[in-house]
Every structure is written in structure tokens, then in C-alpha cells.
């Protein structure tokens, strides 16, 4: 039995609440169980310097964890002068995931920055951030279309992410912290609404995992992301 009493292929309770930040062009508060991330999308009327004159826009992301998102207080990274390697990796992953489903020329020479701030962490913060960031980005593009800043929706597809792992010899979906910290294998999958793979991150803790086990995890992830995409659709339709 999993610590959370869930079935092996069962997600935690997931909620996606949009339009939660008054001043942001797009926003979403996403919860994967006890993991909660605030995602806000901000429009800048100019793109990065290296795209000047290209007619193409850019989508990027920043990620941070609030000091008491975990059991003990973590110092704000600004006090050390730079983000940690983990933070840098996660925010690059979020940006890549969003750009994979965005028609960048449709934005024009503008930049959207999606900030993902972890309010509470209980495993799967990066996967929750990606799933909520898509909703925030969608809201930002809807805001832009409503003001005739852009004429078409730049989003070509949904994208969401979920963790999977092998716990006590069993492939399981959407690990919380108790499970993640003891799993023999931990993997994160970023998948589009049409089933395309954007990124796969897999790590063995101890014994290596097999190709067959990887495929088992992929099957779980695809089913989980299909459920997450359905929740995204419900969120943007409400």
C-alpha cells in the first residue's frame, strides 16, 4: 500500500484555479495534493535582445521556493546572489516545456515570463509548476487577444507533467515526498496533449531500472498527463 493509500495509477487530488493574481496578465494556483505552486504570466512588450528584428517572441520561466515551503526554513536564494543549480535546471525545464507548444512568431517581438513560486512542497514541484504554468500562459494569451495585441492563439497544444517511480518494486504515478524520498527509481515526464514527449528525466537510486520498467512508467505517465490535460481544459473553460 502506498503511504497515501492511493492506487498505483492514481494521481493525487489536482486543482487548477485560474485568475488568482489581480495584476498578472495570466495566473493559476495549482495543487498536486499538498504541493501548491502559484504561477503568474507577465507580458513584456519587448523580446530578448538576440531576437530583435526576427519577428519572433519568447516564453521563459523563473522558479523559486518560498522559505517555509518545506518543514524547515530555507534561505531565499537572492541572499546568496544567484539561483542554485536545481532552481536553474527547473526553470529552464519549465521554459522549454512551454515553448514546445507555443507558436513564437505569433507573439510578435514580445516576451512572456512565467513565474512559478512554490508555496508548499510535498514532492513533484516541477511537474505541478509546468502543469499550472500552461494555464497561466493560456490566460495571458487570452488577455492579449482580448485587447487585439495578437490575433491568433499562439498555443498549439496542451503540455503537462507528472512524476512516476518504482516504489517497493511497483511502478507508481505522481509521487509525494514520502514516496519520492524512498523510491528505487524516480522519473519526470513532460508530455503534450497529443502525446508527444517533451522531456523525460529518470534516475535510479541504487539498482538500475530496466527498459521494461521505463515503458511501464511511460504508460503510467501518459495516462496521468491525459487526466491533467482534461483538468486544464476544465479550468480554462470555467
TrEMBL record:
<dbReference type="Pfam" id="PF03725">
    <property type="entry name" value="RNase_PH_C"/>
</dbReference>
<protein>
    <recommendedName>
        <fullName>Ribonuclease PH</fullName>
        <ecNumber>2.7.7.56</ecNumber>
    </recommendedName>
</protein>
<dbReference type="GO" id="GO:0000175">
    <property type="term" value="F:3'-5'-RNA exonuclease activity"/>
</dbReference>
<dbReference type="InterPro" id="IPR027408">
    <property type="entry name" value="PNPase/RNase_PH_dom_sf"/>
</dbReference>
<keyword id="KW-0808">Transferase</keyword>
<dbReference type="InterPro" id="IPR018336">
    <property type="entry name" value="RNase_PH_CS"/>
</dbReference>
<comment type="function">
    <text>Phosphorolytic 3'-5' exoribonuclease that plays an important role in tRNA 3'-end maturation. Removes nucleotide residues following the 3'-CCA terminus of tRNAs; can also add nucleotides to the ends of RNA molecules by using nucleoside diphosphates as substrates, but this may not be physiologically important. Probably plays a role in initiation of 16S rRNA degradation (leading to ribosome degradation) during starvation.</text>
</comment>
<keyword id="KW-0819">tRNA processing</keyword>
<feature type="binding site">
    <location>
        <begin position="124"/>
        <end position="126"/>
    </location>
    <ligand>
        <name>phosphate</name>
    </ligand>
</feature>
<feature type="domain" description="Exoribonuclease phosphorolytic">
    <location>
        <begin position="159"/>
        <end position="223"/>
    </location>
</feature>
<dbReference type="GO" id="GO:0031125">
    <property type="term" value="P:rRNA 3'-end processing"/>
</dbReference>
<dbReference type="InterPro" id="IPR002381">
    <property type="entry name" value="RNase_PH_bac-type"/>
</dbReference>
<keyword id="KW-0820">tRNA-binding</keyword>
<dbReference type="GO" id="GO:0008033">
    <property type="term" value="P:tRNA processing"/>
</dbReference>
<dbReference type="GO" id="GO:0016075">
    <property type="term" value="P:rRNA catabolic process"/>
</dbReference>
<dbReference type="InterPro" id="IPR050080">
    <property type="entry name" value="RNase_PH"/>
</dbReference>
<dbReference type="GO" id="GO:0000049">
    <property type="term" value="F:tRNA binding"/>
</dbReference>
<feature type="domain" description="Exoribonuclease phosphorolytic">
    <location>
        <begin position="10"/>
        <end position="138"/>
    </location>
</feature>
<dbReference type="InterPro" id="IPR015847">
    <property type="entry name" value="ExoRNase_PH_dom2"/>
</dbReference>
<keyword id="KW-0694">RNA-binding</keyword>
<comment type="subunit">
    <text>Homohexameric ring arranged as a trimer of dimers.</text>
</comment>
<comment type="similarity">
    <text>Belongs to the RNase PH family.</text>
</comment>
<dbReference type="InterPro" id="IPR020568">
    <property type="entry name" value="Ribosomal_Su5_D2-typ_SF"/>
</dbReference>
<dbReference type="InterPro" id="IPR001247">
    <property type="entry name" value="ExoRNase_PH_dom1"/>
</dbReference>
<dbReference type="Pfam" id="PF01138">
    <property type="entry name" value="RNase_PH"/>
</dbReference>
<keyword id="KW-0548">Nucleotidyltransferase</keyword>
<feature type="binding site">
    <location>
        <position position="86"/>
    </location>
    <ligand>
        <name>phosphate</name>
    </ligand>
</feature>
<dbReference type="GO" id="GO:0009022">
    <property type="term" value="F:tRNA nucleotidyltransferase activity"/>
</dbReference>
<keyword id="KW-0698">rRNA processing</keyword>
<dbReference type="InterPro" id="IPR036345">
    <property type="entry name" value="ExoRNase_PH_dom2_sf"/>
</dbReference>
Amino acid at each position: 500500500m502506498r503511504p497515501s493509500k492511493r492506487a498505483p495509477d492514481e494521481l493525487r487530488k489536482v486543482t487548477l484555479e485560474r485568475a488568482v493574481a489581480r495584476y498578472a496578465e495570466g495566473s493559476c494556483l495549482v495543487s498536486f495534493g499538498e504541493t501548491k505552486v502559484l504561477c503568474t504570466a507577465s507580458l513584456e512588450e519587448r523580446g530578448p535582445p538576440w531576437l530583435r528584428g526576427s519577428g519572433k517572441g519568447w516564453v521563459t520561466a523563473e522558479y523559486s521556493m518560498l522559505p517555509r515551503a518545506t518543514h524547515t526554513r530555507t534561505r531565499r536564494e537572492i541572499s546568496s546572489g544567484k539561483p542554485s543549480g536545481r532552481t536553474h535546471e527547473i526553470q529552464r525545464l519549465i521554459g522549454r516545456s512551454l515553448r514546445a507548444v507555443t507558436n513564437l512568431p505569433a507573439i510578435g517581438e514580445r516576451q512572456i515570463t512565467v513565474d512559478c513560486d512554490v508555496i508548499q512542497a510535498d514532492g513533484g514541484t516541477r511537474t505541478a509548476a509546468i502543469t499550472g504554468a500552461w494555464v497561466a500562459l493560456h490566460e495571458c494569451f487570452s488577455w492579449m487577444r482580448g485587447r487585439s495585441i495578437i490575433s491568433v492563439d499562439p498555443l498549439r497544444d496542451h503540455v503537462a507533467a507528472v512524476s512516476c517511480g518504482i516504489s517497493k518494486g511497483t511502478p507508481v504515478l505522481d509521487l509525494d515526498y514520502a514516496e519520492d524520498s524512498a523510491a528505487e527509481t524516480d522519473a519526470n515526464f513532460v508530455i503534450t496533449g497529443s502525446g508527444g514527449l517533451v522531456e523525460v528525466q529518470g534516475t535510479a537510486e541504487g539498482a538500475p531500472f530496466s527498459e521494461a520498467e521505463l515503458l511501464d512508467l511511460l504508460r503510467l505517465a501518459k495516462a496521468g498527463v491525459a487526466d491533467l490535460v482534461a483538468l486544464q481544459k476544465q479550468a480554462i473553460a470555467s
